[in-house]
């Protein structure tokens, strides 16, 4: 987890404030929110973030319980510990929200993201793209004489690294799903 030190009430970011007791760490947290699967719920959750100026780095939503009509929203956000606590408390007060879990603090979790990359090229660039795709265990899901579509699954860092390597080889387009995450071990939501 990456962290950045900031002084309360200050917009300056300085590593020299490390001994100041008013310094809080900006942390990245992955939240799993179980909600009623009904119209307007996602808008209300997103409205909470935008209305208070909280940033969303990643957002995924899907129905996880068809019979119980429940969906899971996975939100990756950043903030100081007090801001993260505010976000969790405010999410918990939204009526169609059933559960809010902070996967970052509740124990080990597994995070993955899926991305599709369209890479165009001929000759040596095409061969190099295939070689790198093999190293990253990317699947070729579409191929023409002039382009490939690769599917890559892994951490966000892996997706970023693959994109960085494909850019000079002819990366035309990229689509990312956002992070899906589950806690490790027997316990679950």
From TrEMBL:
The keyword Repeat does not apply. The keyword Transferase applies. Keywords: Amino-acid biosynthesis, Branched-chain amino acid biosynthesis, Transferase. Pfam families: ACT_AHAS_ss, ALS_ss_C. Signal peptide: none annotated. InterPro entries: Acetalactate_synth_ssu, Acetolactate_synth/TF_NikR_C, Acetolactate_synth_ssu_C, ACT-like_dom_sf, ACT_dom, AHAS_ACT, AHAS_small-like_ACT. Transmembrane segments: none annotated. It is an enzyme of class 2 (transferase). One of its GO terms (cellular component) is cytosol. One of its GO terms (molecular function) is acetolactate synthase activity. Its EC number is 2.2.1.6. Residues 30-105 form the ACT domain. One of its GO terms (biological process) is L-valine biosynthetic process. It comes from the Bacteria. Pathway: Amino-acid biosynthesis; L-isoleucine biosynthesis; L-isoleucine from 2-oxobutanoate: step 1/4; Amino-acid biosynthesis; L-valine biosynthesis; L-valine from pyruvate: step 1/4. It catalyses: 2 pyruvate + H(+) = (2S)-2-acetolactate + CO2. Dimer of large and small chains. NCBIfam families: acolac_sm (TIGR00119), PRK11895.1 (NF008864). Catalyzes the conversion of 2 pyruvate molecules into acetolactate in the first common step of the biosynthetic pathway of the branched-amino acids such as leucine, isoleucine, and valine. Belongs to the acetolactate synthase small subunit family. PANTHER family: ACETOLACTATE SYNTHASE SMALL SUBUNIT (PTHR30239), ACETOLACTATE SYNTHASE SMALL SUBUNIT 1, CHLOROPLASTIC (PTHR30239:SF0). This is Acetolactate synthase small subunit.
């Amino acid at each position: 987890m990456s962290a950045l030190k900031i002084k309360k009430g200050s917009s300056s970011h300085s590593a020299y404030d490390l001994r100041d007791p008013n310094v809080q760490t900006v942390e990245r947290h992955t939240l799993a929110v179980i909600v009623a699967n009904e119209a307007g719920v996602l808008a209300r959750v997103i409205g909470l973030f935008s209305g208070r100026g909280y940033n969303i780095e990643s957002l995924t939503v899907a129905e996880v319980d068809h019979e119980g009509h429940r969906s899971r929203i996975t939100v990756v956000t950043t903030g100081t510990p007090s801001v993260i606590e505010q976000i969790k408390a405010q999410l918990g007060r939204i009526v169609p929200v059933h559960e809010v879990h902070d996967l970052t603090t509740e124990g080990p979790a597994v995070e993955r993201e899926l991305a599709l990359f369209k890479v165009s090229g001929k000759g040596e660039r095409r061969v190099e793209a295939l070689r790198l795709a093999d190293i990253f265990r990317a699947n070729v899901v579409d191929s023409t004489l002039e382009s490939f579509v690769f599917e890559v699954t892994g951490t966000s860092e892996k997706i970023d690294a693959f994109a960085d390597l494909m850019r000079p080889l002819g990366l035309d387009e990229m689509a990312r799903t956002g992070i899906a995450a589950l806690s490790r071990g027997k316990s679950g939501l």
